[in-house]
Each structure stands twice: as C-alpha cells, then as structure tokens.
Specification:
- This protein is α/β, with parallel strands linked by helices and 441 residues long.
- The chain contains 20 helices and 12 strands.
- The protein has 3 domains: 150 residues, NusB-like (N-utilizing Substance Protein B Homolog, Chain A), CATH 1.10.940; 55 residues, 2-Layer Sandwich (Alpha-Beta Plaits); 191 residues, 3-Layer(aba) Sandwich (Rossmann fold).
- The strands form 2 sheets. Strands 5, 6, 7, 8, 9, 10, 11 and 12 form an 8-stranded mixed beta sheet that branches.
- β5, α16 and β6 form a beta-alpha-beta unit.
- It is globular.
C-alpha cells in the first residue's frame, strides 16, 4: 500500500541538509537505528522513540537507509575484516554504517574513518576506537579485492536475502536481475495533482517557478527531477497535491469509479488511493483500516485535500463488525503484503521479512477478499492490489480466488483488450505493483 509520503523518500530528500549535522553523532544515531532493525523493528517505529531532530535526524536516516540498502554487502565485508563475531551490537552496527558510507562516498573516506573512530570513543569507554580504525583502514587497503569478491557472492552482489533472490528468479525469470538492481536504488519522488483544486498546467507552472524540474508521466503523475522536502513542494500544505508513486496512482483509474457509486477502500491507510478516488468522481466512499492510529491519518490527509469520506476502523476479514449491509459498487482491495515491490523505499523490509511470511500474508489476503466479496453488489467490480512482486501474493492468489467463487469473473484492465492483470516492476518511473480486476456476475 503506497503512503502519501513514502517513508524512504524522506531521507533521500533530506540528504542536502544532512551534512550540517556532526557526522560522529549521526553515525551513532544511525547505528542505534540499525541495532533496532537487527532486533526486528522497522526504522519508522525505532525512529519514533528516538529524540532526533533537524539535520541530525535527517543525517541519521540517510546513513541508515544507505546501510540497509547495502546490508548484504556490509555483512559480507565485515565477515572478511574481523576474525570473530562482534558481541557489542552498537559496534557491529557502527561498522556496517561506516562501511556503507565508505563504499558510497569514497572521496570522503578520511572523514568517514575519522568520525567513525570519534563515534567509537563513546562506546564502552572508548575501548573500540582502535578496532574501528583498524577495520575501516583495512577495508580501504583491500577495497578492490573485497569489491571483486563481493561480486562472486549472490547476497553481497544483489544486496537481497538469498530466499528473496530465489523467489524472484522463480517468479520472474526474465526480469529478476533488473528487479533486484532497481530495489537497491533511491526511489523517485512523484506527485499526484489534486485536480479538484488546481489544473495540471497551473500546478506545473508553480513547480517551474519554484525551480523544481519535473516530468509528467502516464496518467498525469508528476515526477520531480530532484527530491525535496514536502514543505518545499508548492501548494502541498494547501492540498494542491499529494506524494504518491506513479504505480500506486494506477489503482484509482483501473477501478473505473463513476459518480454516485458506493465505494469501499479496504486497508486504506494512510489514504492516498482513497483520496485519488475522491478526486476522480463524486462517490460515497468508505475507507477502512484495522489500525485506529493509521485510520486517523486517513481523515487528516483527506482534510488537507478538501475531501470527505466515511472512515471506519475495522478488519476487512470480518465485515459483520462494520458493514451496514448496503452493497458496494466498487471495492479497492489493497491488501497487506510483503511490500517486495517497494523495498527501495523501505529497505529494512528486505531483512525483516522471512520466507515463511509470504504464506502468512497470502492467508491474510485470502481471508480479506473472501469476506469482502459478499459486500460487493451484483455486477460490481473489485480491484485486487498489492505492492508485491511474489506470485503467491498476486497471480496465484487471484487464480485461486476465482476457483473458489463461481460468481467471480476476471476483466481486462483499462487500456488493454486482453490483459487480465498488471504486474509493474520497479523502475525509474514507479515502484512494483500488481493489479487484477474482478466482477461479480
């Protein structure tokens, strides 16, 4: 599910201001974030509990996301630079953060080593200073040999877990390498214009006046040439636009909403697709999410855009707890998934996920779509959507659903006479998404 402000877009946008933070402090803060991820927490949750502000927060996030994208390589390098496992988690994380920065910014190697040693001086009374200095300088001396060796190791080369690589090889034998490469890049920052408040030409003129070069993509999505902080996007605070990936913007168009229809958006938080549906047609929309805190964000985001919907807290798998019995004409089933198509925005997901999680997500998806199908009117349409690249969550899930429901028919997607699904792979324009349209007959 695509967020209105993608989490990983923020550190990318903040990189320009990150240099104003003391690097040693930023390295330590990033190490703490990485320790939290290694313990099973995602970056955003860990960050919410840390007293970081301003340029220090921006720098720590940038360093953390850089290290997480290169995590497979960092562990590979570290295993060849130390003789035994490190018992101190913050030391281990600090070295991973520093190694990632050394590879990403080789021209700043001296500063990185100096500041990493300064950061180590605050750990365990400074007894790790010499170790950090030795490991990082050893990496610089052996850099070319280590980089060459990393190309022979699958996880280090592709910077994804081995099971993840194997699944992509199986599900997308012609595209898996391009998918993995895209997953290690910085994501684009893409906007959706709120056409209820401003015409596209006028909004583009505002961007130009602000010095923000942009490209208009298919469907009217606007990709900025250079990411910026949201407060610098003209009209964002006034509801003239939202941050939403171009691939996520496909959903509202594919659902084919018409004026006066009753529409359900399941798993709707934080409300990006709900808002887009409301911008396209005069509909009666119910936005549902199981998490009360995330559901509250739907209302906040709709209010900024000048839109209104009925926001409910509830589980899509149990309609009897929230459904009033009136059928919906359209349903957007943007179900929970592995988020394998958006890992460049959330690189921690690559290392937090386990292969067994795919079956768990598939079971949750099955419960939700089986339950909400009963709330769809005869002749109504349901768009099944994920930000996943794994077949078990996508094509296999939809095929099994049609096999269970004799009244379900797959429809060609808009713009195609025969395509019964759309699998987007992450590239320079959009993240990875899957869509399939079903009609109740």
């Amino acid at each position: 599910m695509a967020a209105i402000m993608p989490a990983a877009a923020r550190p990318t946008a903040a990189t320009a201001s990150a240099t104003s933070a003391p690097l040693a402090a930023a390295l330590l803060a990033a190490a703490d974030l990485l320790v939290a991820v290694r313990a099973g927490r995602n970056v955003e949750v860990a960050l919410s509990g840390m007293p970081l502000e301003g340029s220090l927060r921006a720098a720590a996030m940038d360093l953390t996301y850089t290290a997480l994208r290169a995590y497979g390589r960092g562990e590979f390098f570290l295993s060849r630079l130390i003789s035994r496992p490190l018992a101190e988690p913050r030391l281990h994380a600090l070295l991973l953060i520093a190694l990632a920065r050394l590879e990403a910014q080789p021209v700043r190697a001296h500063t990185t080593v100096d500041q990493a040693v300064a950061a180590a001086a605050t750990l365990a009374g400074g007894r790790f200073k010499a170790l950090v200095n030795a490991v990082l300088r050893n990496f610089l001396r052996r850099r070319e040999a280590l980089l060459a060796a990393a190309e022979t190791d699958e996880v280090a080369r592709h910077q994804h877990p081995a099971w993840w690589i194997a699944r992509l090889q199986q599900d997308h034998p012609e595209h898996w390498q391009a998918i993995l490469a895209a997953g290690n890049t910085h994501p684009p920052l893409t906007l959706r214009i709120n056409r209820r408040r401003i015409a596209s030409a006028e909004f583009l003129a505002r961007l130009d006046a602000a010095g923000s070069a942009a490209q208009v993509l298919a469907g009217g999505a606007v990709r900025l040439a250079h990411p910026v902080a949201i407060e610098r996007i003209p009209g964002f605070a006034d509801g003239l636009c939202s941050v939403q990936d171009a691939g996520a913007q496909r959903a509202a168009f594919l659902l084919d909403v018409q004026d006066s229809q009753r529409v359900l958006d399941v798993c709707a938080a934080p409300g990006g697709k709900s808002a887009h549906l409301l911008e396209l047609a005069e509909i009666e929309l119910t936005a549902l999410d199981v998490d009360a805190a995330r559901a509250a964000r739907i209302g906040d985001n709709l209010a900024r855009l000048g839109l209104a919907a009925t926001v409910k807290v509830g589980d899509g798998a149990t309609p009897d707890t929230w459904w009033d019995g009136r059928p919906f004409d359209r349903i957007l089933a943007d179900v929970p998934c592995s988020a394998s198509g958006v890992v460049r925005r959330h690189p921690d997901a690559k290392w937090l996920r386990r292969e067994a999680d795919i079956a768990r997500f598939a079971a949750t998806q099955r419960r939700i779509i089986d339950a909400i199908w009963q709330t769809l009117s005869l002749g109504g349409k349901m768009l099944y959507a994920t930000c996943s690249l794994f077949a078990a969550e996508n094509e296999e899930q939809v095929a099994a659903f049609v096999g269970r429901h004799a009244d379900a028919v797959r429809l060609p997607l808009a713009g195609s006479a025969s395509a019964l699904c759309l699998q987007l792979f992450p590239d320079a324009e959009h993240d990875g998404f899957y869509y399939a349209l079903l009609q109740k007959t």
